[in-house]
Each structure stands twice: as C-alpha cells, then as structure tokens.
Design brief:
The complex is a heterodimer.
Chain A lengths: L4 E3 L2 E4 L5 E6 L6 E7 L6 E7 L2 E5 L7 E4 L6 E5 L8 E8 L10 E2 L3 E5 L1
Parallel strand pairs in A: 2-11
Antiparallel strand pairs in A: 1-3, 3-8, 4-5, 4-9, 5-6, 7-8, 9-10, 9-11
Chain B lengths: L3 E2 L5 E4 L4 E7 L6 E7 L6 E6 L3 E5 L2 E6 L4 E6 L8 E8 L5 E3 L3 E6 L1
Parallel strand pairs in B: 2-11
Antiparallel strand pairs in B: 1-3, 3-8, 4-5, 4-9, 6-7, 7-8, 9-10, 9-11
Classes of the chains: A mainly beta, B mainly beta.
C-alpha cells in the first residue's frame, strides 16, 4: 500500500538557521498539507497546496514559512529563520481531492524538528 | 474561532471493556468528522470518519454523530492494551481544513 514519506525523520538546528522539510506524497494525491504538533499539544494546520499554489494557510504560516513542489514529486516546507518555538513535529499529508465529504487525508510519519 | 474540545484524560479502562471517547465542536457548519489514533511520537492514523447523524460501525469501533448537539463520539468495544493511545477528534467545515482537538489519552490495562 502506498505511503507518504518524510525526510529527515529528525532535524536539529540552531536558532536562525534555515531548514527544509521534505515529503513525498502518494502519487495519485493532488492536495497536500503541512501540519505541526508542538509536544503535548494539538495538531495544527499550517498550509494546504493544490495545483502548485497555496490554497489555504493559517495564522501560524507567516513569512518565515514557504512551501513548494519543486519537481512534481517532492513537497517541501521551508522555515527561513528558525525560532525556538518552531520546535515541533511536522506532518505532511495528502488527499486525492479536497477534504470534502467522503474524502480523507493520509499522514506521513513526521519530522521532529528541534531548534536550539 | 473554530473549537474542537476533548477531555484530555487519561481515560483508563480494563481490557475487554468499552471505551467511550467524546468530542464537541463549535462550528455548526461542520460537515466531516474524523477520529484518529496517535501513538506517542507517531503520526495520526485514521480510525473512523462519519458525515451524517447516527452511528457508523467498523469492527470494534463505532462513531456516533449528533449535529444538533454538536457532538461526536467514538466507542471502542473489547478494548485491548494495544488500543492505548491518544485519540484525536478532527472536524472539517466549509473551509475544507480540519480542526483538531487536543486528544484524549486512553489507557487499557490488562
């Protein structure tokens, strides 16, 4: 069964550094999402992406964040200048269609980001 | 602000018992409702989805939805120690973006 994959599984970085988190969605998925989950807290939506454009973004997704699909398979989340509070688990997800009735999304295993 | 509320628990039940997990939501326009299971350090795994009022059963799991009361629940029958995890409720409204609750920690003890 196809799965969403994410790399790296763990990333440690210094505050102020740029990080790029990578995701390979399931091949027939067209909608892509990034979420984050700070330790002990709820899963929070960051951004959704369709047809090479951002379709929705949350208040968390400020100018420090960007997403792109550089080569038609990878889907990346870039954090330009990391802060301590960016330390979290970052999940990529995908779905075949928009998350309307009867559609579900599939999560990748996550990247644990630690900013020191 | 759309809210999804869950009792954080932990909910402790003996092996073989029924575990009942509850979730309330604030957005009356919500259309899709999901229960995910999340083991510590892992990603959410879809357990059940429900879209219309009433019950939906899948194996040992039953989801119940009451839109008038803005309430969705998950029943786990014959609970097993392997069911011990955090259960996340997620709700989708007109924006097609899920809002998650903080999750309920379930402990099934032998």
């Amino acid at each position: 069964e196809p799965e969403v994959t994410q790399t790296p599984s763990h990333q440690v970085t210094q505050m102020g550094q740029e990080v790029i988190l990578r995701c390979v969605p399931i091949s027939n998925h067209l909608y892509f999402y990034w979420y984050r989950q700070i330790l002990g807290q709820k899963v929070e939506f960051l951004v959704s992406f369709y047809n090479n454009e951002i379709s929705e973004k949350s208040e968390i997704f400020d100018d420090q964040f960007s997403v792109e699909r550089p080569d038609g398979s990878n889907f990346t989340l870039k954090i330009r200048s990391t802060k301590l509070e960016d330390s979290a688990m970052y999940f990529c997800a995908g779905s075949r269609t928009r998350l309307a009735v009867e559609e579900t999304q599939y999560f990748g295993p996550g990247t644990r980001l630690l900013v020191l | 602000q759309k809210e999804v509320e869950q009792n954080s628990g932990p909910l402790s039940v003996p092996e073989g018992a029924i575990a009942s997990l509850n979730c309330t939501y604030s957005d009356r326009g919500s259309q899709s409702f999901f229960w995910y299971r999340q083991y510590s350090g892992k990603s959410p795994e879809l357990i059940m989805s429900i879209y219309s009022n009433g019950d939906k059963e899948d194996g040992r799991f039953t989801a119940q939805l009451n839109k008038a009361s803005q309430y969705v629940s998950l029943l786990i029958r014959d609970s097993q120690p392997s069911d011990s995890a955090t259960y996340l409720c997620a709700v989708i409204g007109g924006s097609y973006i899920p809002t998650f609750g903080r999750g309920t920690s379930l402990i099934v003890h032998p």
